[in-house]
Amino acid sequence: MEANLALLIPLFPVIAFLLLIFGRKAFCKKMAAAVGVAATFASFALSTWVLVAGETITWKVPWLQIGNQTVSLSIEIGSLQMLMLFIVSVVSMLVHLYSYGYMKHDDRIQVFYAYLALFTFSMFSLVMSSNLLWIYIFWELVGVCSFLLIGFWYFKPEARDAARKAFVVTRIGDVGFFIAICLAFWHAGSFEVSDLQAVVESGQLTPGLITLLAVLIFVGAIGKSGQFPLHTWLPNAMEGPTPVSALIHAATMVAAGVYLVANLFFLFQASPFAMDLVAYVGGFTAIFAATIGLAQYDIKRVLAYSTVSQLGYMMLALGSAGYVAGVFHLFTHAFFKALLFLGAGAVIVLLSHEQDIRKMGGLWKSHRQLGIWFLAGCLSIAGIPPFSGFFSKDEILLSTYLDGRIDLFVIGIIAAFFTAFYMFRLFFMVFAGEARGPKADSKVPVVMMVPIVILGLFSVFSGFANASPMHLLTAWLSKGNDYTAATGHAPVWLPVLVVTVSLVGIGLAYLYFGSRKWSTSKVVQTVPRLHKLVFNKYYVDELYHYAFVLPAKGIGWFLYGVDRFVVGGLAYLTAWIAQFIGRIGSRIQNGQAQTYALVSVIGFVLLIVGLTAGRFLK
Amino acid sequence: MVVTSYLALSAILFSIGLYGVLTKRNAVIVLFCIELMLNAANINFVAFSKFGLFPDLAGHIFTLFTITIAAAEAALGIAILIALYRHVETAEADQFKSLKG
Amino acid sequence: MSWINWLPALVTFFPLLGVAVLLFLPREKTGLHRFWGIMATLPSLFFALYMYLHFDQGFKGLQWFQSVIWFQIPILQGEPWTFHYSMGVDGLSLPLIVLTTIVSTLAAVASLYIRQATKGYYQLLLLLETGMIGVFAAANLFLFFIFFEITLIVTFFLIGKWGFLGKVKAANRFLLYNGLGSGFLLFAMVALMIMFGSLEYSDLESRMGQVMGQLALLPPQIETTLWAVFIALMIAFSIKLPVFPFHSWMLRTHVEAPTPVVMIHSGVLLKMGAYGFMRFGVGLFPEQMKEIAVLIAILGLINILYGALLAIVQRELKSVLAYSSISHMGIILFGLASLNAAGLKGVMFQAVSHGLISALLFFLVGCMYERTRTTELDDLGGLAKSMPVFSGIFLVGIMALLGLPGLSGFISEFLSYLGLFQNYPVIASIGALGLIFTVVYALRALLKTTFGPIHERYRLLNDLNVNESVPMMVLVALIVLIGVYPDSLGAPMQVTLDLIVSRIGG
């Protein structure tokens, strides 16, 4: 009975999707929004109920026959999944609500809600599936929803290019995941995660194969979660509408990579190399993206790089055996990053779609309430107690420290400093000082403010889910596994260090951008090359363009030439030979029926003569 | 040897027909010559049906068939010729060479 | 003998009734031709669906099997050579017959932009349908060959008369290559007749099994001959599929043929190659197939990457789709090379699914061409503004093409790759790069057509009308059905595939 109820969680959004896509003419804007919000609210209620009930739910139905094996559509909702369902449903519901305010002037809001609903459905299903194939299926579906929503304003060339980039770059990662599930099928004998776990834990697979599987799956996670070197699509994805950025490119879909690694944590634990890889890629991404974030001027791009950086943190935690820390940060990050994006969206709407932070300012005075909640988000991501980010970031650094990778620990600390700095750079540039661009004289609509407030409350308090001394989340997540066995005690200096570093970052940001006592142009002048490098995102896009895109196109053109001249030439040759033979033959065919008759008469006579002669010769 | 004379007549008729088919330029005459050849064959049929080793009526019947079909064929041939004539304004067989390869 | 055994014949020959009806219609009544042309495809569609619903999924062998002695050729010694007229349906042919009837009906509906000589056009189209269904429904190699040739000749005329600018050249190229293929097929057929004395599928299979069982005892010439026959068959079907480097005829055909013919061509005719590979390659020569599996896998790899890379640089929409067909046929080769349950199922799924998808896409492109008068990618753009329904369906089509889960393309792609991963993981991994290239060219086609700023001259285009969008919706529904519930297609073919896999052995 419970299983059936849980199945309704993804069902509501998919019904909403079908209603909206086929009845887009029938619904007015308000109705469309109502359908979307109602569906997600129903899912939210069910998810909460599942979370509160707290019992593992499994469900299975055969789907596809491969030889004598049956691939099932199988669902298993354990503690991690319940948590994810809760996060996704909360953020999704709030974003649905918020979108009505943000998108109400768009003619295609029905389609927008349809896509959002489809995304929500896919994301729920992705989380619920306990079968690698089904995870992959929904993994692709969320990708395509992301593509559709980034390219929602299809007439903008930037949106179109960003959508393509998002799809192609994540597809590169997906291929790794795809190879991994194919290999897993032949070596584990099924797509079920539980079967794979059994095989891995009983030691039937060679260590090399386990490492290969883990690395390939991680490649998929890299693509989805925007980790280096496949991070380039995520900042471009900000061309989509802001609610989309909040839902897909901050809170849920990009965290799917982290979720995947957490879900298959047994596999990674079995391979030290894979753990190293996860940790180092995560750590590198965290600091790499944070430095880029320092020099960006587009409000959404700053947040995007911050997302990349925070996802790097989560990977770092998982790679350092900090299972709970990673998931915990996923949990808190979903709320405060969604809050920041929705806040940024409100700012953008107020300033009539201005996104350059150099042209913003002074909003603190005119929109105090928005400013307060935005500040809460900033404090949270910067890791200031008692905001939620503090607790999760603290745990990540703790697990890195306990894991003994001091280099990564140092990187994490530095990244924390950068995070505080660029977030408050953003905050001060947008809210402090005087207005430098378009005036904001309207108020933030209620439908937009309510989600911001709710998310704000979550960002303030969600940290206590795993605060000392109770560690509720740890207890919750350690049900039925031993991922949390190796936790130690935190040295007292660690939280102090983290907070100090963050405070220094905030202070510096205040001096540069709040009070404007110090000037950034001086810094730029002292290290012009470095600034240019960072400002241009380390030229990674350009590098890829010259290293991969152009060669691929070049090969394509080259092969096209081969196709036309060599293969086509062969075809011409064949045709020519046939024609040549035909031309010789056609000499005889002069078109005169009488000649043909003569030839056949001669032939007949010869035949008769031959037969008669044969008789005589005998 | 009565049959020999029939056969001789038939052979002469056939040869005349064949000669006409192969050499005449006018397509109508070519058609007539084909009729000649068919009739030559008919004479053979009738002759053998009367004087052959196993005389029976099969030869007569065949001849009747042939005559019928020849009539149909002549009608068809003439019809085609008229259509062709309208098209290219000639009945000369050597002008009909659009089949030339 | 109940009438039910004539079911395959009914499906096959019903369109001929339409040909006869059309014969008596006046030449200039285009609307009437269209009406009868569409009506005449419906009985076959109906009977094919009836067959699908009443197909006995547990039955091994051909159902509704009907065999009559057709003619005999006396030979000097021994039994005369007997040629049967025999038809039957099994798990390999049923899905393709259903596909053929669906695509034919839709192609008849899609022919609304054919304006000249519609009488002859619909007659040929119906004759083509008979030929195609016959190819799949035949249970005798000789009959198969005859139907195979019918499709060839009829398609030649359809391309040559109703195509676009370069139609004559395209038709000639088509006939030349496929005629070559038929030559190989003829050789194989004659050789099999001489060796086994019968061309019935069942006889061929059983005698082939006997020969392979005692190969060591037989003179070595037998094995050589078998190999020659096998290679001839492979070449014949490689040209049809087409496999690199036999593909160049197919590009021209895709670009120059009229829209409905391309739908049929890409949707069904190419699949005759896949069917031939399954029926006569894997089904008849499993041992030989095993030996050249690596070669087939490599050819598949070349097809996938070559087609995809070339599709990326094409500037014209139909060429993109043509090269993408080459790439997708590589996936069929992957499935064949794997020689296991997953891969072979992938072949059949890919045959059906690509048939549906390419029919849909070419239909869309045809409808678009009627409005924009161009298929050059650089001249298009922003059509989503003026043609939202078109753009939505095009989006689904492209997504199916690039293998989005939930649509049929994914299942086939996935099964084929999965199959190959068992035996040749390295080749399969390299082939997986094709998945990336596929996304690149498919998105390029999509984004350059419907996304971006709209050209001024396209601002007032009409969106699809009901005649166009309803058939497309049918295709979309089928694509989604197979994608979501693959057993709807997979269940009927299961027993036949199991049989083939068991014959391949361990």
TrEMBL record, chain A:
Q: Which InterPro entries match?
A: NADHpl_OxRdtase_5_subgr, ND/Mrp_TM, NU5C-like, Proton_antipo_N
> GO biological process: what's one of them?
ATP synthesis coupled electron transport
Subcellular location, principal: membrane
Where, subcellularly, is it found?
Cell membrane; Membrane
Q: Does the keyword Membrane apply?
A: yes
TM region(s), chain numbering = 6-23, 35-59, 79-99, 111-128, 134-155, 167-186, 206-223, 244-265, 277-295, 302-324, 330-350, 370-388, 408-432, 444-465, 492-513, 543-560, 566-584, 596-617
NADH:quinone oxidoreductase/Mrp antiporter transmembrane domain sequence ranges:
129-419
As one GO molecular function, the record gives: NADH dehydrogenase (ubiquinone) activity
Say yes or no: keyword Transmembrane helix present: yes
NADH-Ubiquinone oxidoreductase (complex I) chain 5 N-terminal domain mapped to chain residues: 63-113
Output the superkingdom of the source species.
Bacteria
**Per the record, GO CC terms?**
plasma membrane
The UniProt entry lists membrane topology as:
Multi-pass membrane protein
Key words, A-Z: Membrane, Transmembrane, Transmembrane helix
What family does the Swiss-Prot or TrEMBL record give for this protein? Belongs to the CPA3 antiporters (TC 2.A.63) subunit A family.
Q: NCBIfam families from the entry?
A: NDH_I_L (TIGR01974), PRK06590.1 (NF005141)
Protein name from the UniProt record = NADH-quinone oxidoreductase subunit L
Upper lineage ranks?
A: Bacteria, Bacillati, Bacillota, Bacilli, Bacillales
From TrEMBL, chain C:
Cellular localization per UniProt:
Cell membrane; Membrane
One term under GO cellular component:
plasma membrane
Question: Which residues does the UniProt record annotate as the domain NADH:quinone oxidoreductase/Mrp antiporter transmembrane?
Answer: 138-428
- Topology in the membrane? Multi-pass membrane protein
Q: Which coarse location class applies to the principal site listed for this UniProt protein?
A: membrane
UniProt-listed InterPro entries: NADH_Q_OxRdtase_chainM/4, NADH_UbQ_OxRdtase, ND/Mrp_TM
| GO molecular-function terms, A-Z | NADH dehydrogenase (ubiquinone) activity; NADH dehydrogenase activity; ubiquinone binding
Which domain of life, per UniProt?
Answer: Bacteria
Is the keyword Transcription regulation in the record?
no
Listed under GO biological process in this entry are: ATP synthesis coupled electron transport; electron transport coupled proton transport
In the record, the note on similarity to other proteins reads: Belongs to the complex I subunit 4 family.
Name of the protein this chain belongs to: NADH-quinone oxidoreductase subunit M
Which segments cross the bilayer? 6-25, 37-55, 92-114, 121-139, 145-164, 176-199, 226-249, 261-280, 292-313, 320-341, 347-369, 389-412, 424-443, 464-485
Q: Which organism is it from?
A: Thermoactinomyces mirandus
The record's keywords, sorted A to Z, are: Membrane, Transmembrane, Transmembrane helix
Which Pfam family name is an example for this entry? Proton_antipo_M
